[in-house]
């Protein structure tokens, strides 16, 4: 499921393929992924071009030369593909450029969404998104955490608390912090808060550096060992539990629940 690092990789891909080219036409193969009227969407895009892009949490904003932005949310299986031909059966939304190349939004399970907005800030407010997980500063993070009492795993996944983290990287962040997924936010000691904050940044940056290929991360990371029967580098066995309905992997040796 695309998390912040995937969206950052898609942003770089989008920037290197799709900027400053006039849009000739749009083909919509699956209307259900649109949150806008298809005609309005076509009218807003046709004859214009993308000037730059921005990422916030798990959203990619593609800025147009007419003050509007196309917003991509990749859902569970969304991705972008640029090229001269497109024969992917799951391409849901296709932008044809005048240079005869196309950019397709591919999404087998159709949980992705495409919207329009004239203001990224309004969009973020409307969705009630928390601060971006890569851009939040330590002081603000501490403040936000103070108001929370729930367990850490669901909190990290809560996009209204902090935007961008999904199930996979939440497990890695907790592993790197040596915190059990069921630790309560209000039980954290100051040093643990600092560690958690640093791990969020470290894990997301590392994931981007590794092009969002979790299995390729260094051996000292959880994700290459995150499967049933996986072994932690400490020698312990990786355990799997359900936390708030989400499958959660952790090392009981490295991530002890006790606060003592
Ligand atoms: Zn371990």
Q: Output the strand order for the largest sheet.
A: 1-6-7-5
The CATH class designation of the largest domain is: Alpha Beta
If you average the pLDDT, what whole number results? 96
Number of domains: 2
Walk me through the structure.
This protein has 260 residues and is of the alpha+beta class. It folds into two domains: 4-126, N-terminal domain of MutM-like DNA repair proteins; 138-250, Helicase, Ruva Protein, domain 3, CATH 1.10.8. 29% of the residues lie in helices and 22% in strands. It is built from seven helices and ten strands. The strands form three sheets. A four-stranded antiparallel β-sheet has the order 1-6-7-5, with helices on one face. Helix 6 (167-177) packs across helix 7 (190-209). The radius of gyration is 20 Å and the shape is elongated. It starts with a helix and ends in a 10-residue tail after the last strand. The mean pLDDT is 96. The structure holds zinc ion (ZN). Zinc ion binds at residues 232, 234, 236, 251, 253-254.
SSE blueprint:
Blueprint: H1 4-17, E1 23-28, H2 38-45, E2 50-56, E3 59-64, E4 69-73, E5 79-83, E6 91-97, E7 102-106, E8 113-117, H3 120-126, H4 138-146, H5 152-157, H6 167-177, H7 190-209, E9 239-243, E10 246-250
Antiparallel strand pairs: 1-6, 2-3, 3-4, 4-8, 5-7, 6-7, 9-10
Helix pairs in contact: 1-7, 6-7
Zinc ion binds at residues 232, 234, 236, 251, 253-254.
């Amino acid at each position: 499921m695309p998390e912040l690092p995937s969206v950052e990789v898609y942003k770089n891909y989008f920037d290197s393929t799709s900027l400053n080219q006039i849009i000739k036409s749009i083909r919509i193969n699956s209307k259900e992924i649109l949150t806008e009227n298809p005609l309005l969407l076509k009218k807003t895009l046709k004859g214009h071009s993308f000037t730059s892009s921005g990422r916030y949490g798990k959203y990619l904003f593609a800025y147009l030369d007419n003050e509007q932005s196309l917003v991509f949310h990749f859902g569970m299986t969304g991705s972008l593909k640029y090229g001269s031909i497109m024969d992917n059966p799951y391409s849901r939304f296709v932008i044809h450029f005048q240079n005869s190349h196309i950019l397709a939004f591919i999404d087998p399970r159709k949980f992705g969404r495409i919207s329009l907005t004239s203001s990224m800030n309004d969009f973020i407010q409307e969705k009630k998104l928390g601060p971006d997980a890569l851009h939040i500063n330590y002081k603000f993070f501490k403040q936000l955490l103070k108001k929370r009492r729930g367990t850490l795993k669901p909190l990290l996944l809560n996009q209204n608390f902090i935007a961008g983290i999904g199930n996979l990287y939440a497990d890695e962040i907790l592993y790197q912090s040596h915190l059990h997924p069921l630790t309560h936010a209000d039980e954290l000691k100051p040093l643990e808060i600092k560690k958690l904050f640093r791990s969020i940044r470290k894990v997301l940056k590392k994931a981007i550096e590794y092009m969002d290929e979790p299995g390729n991360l260094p051996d000292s990371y959880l994700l290459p060992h995150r499967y049933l029967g996986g072994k932690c580098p400490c020698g312990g066995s990786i355990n799997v539990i359900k936390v708030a309905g989400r499958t959660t992997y952790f090392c009981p040796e490295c991530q002890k629940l006790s606060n003592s």
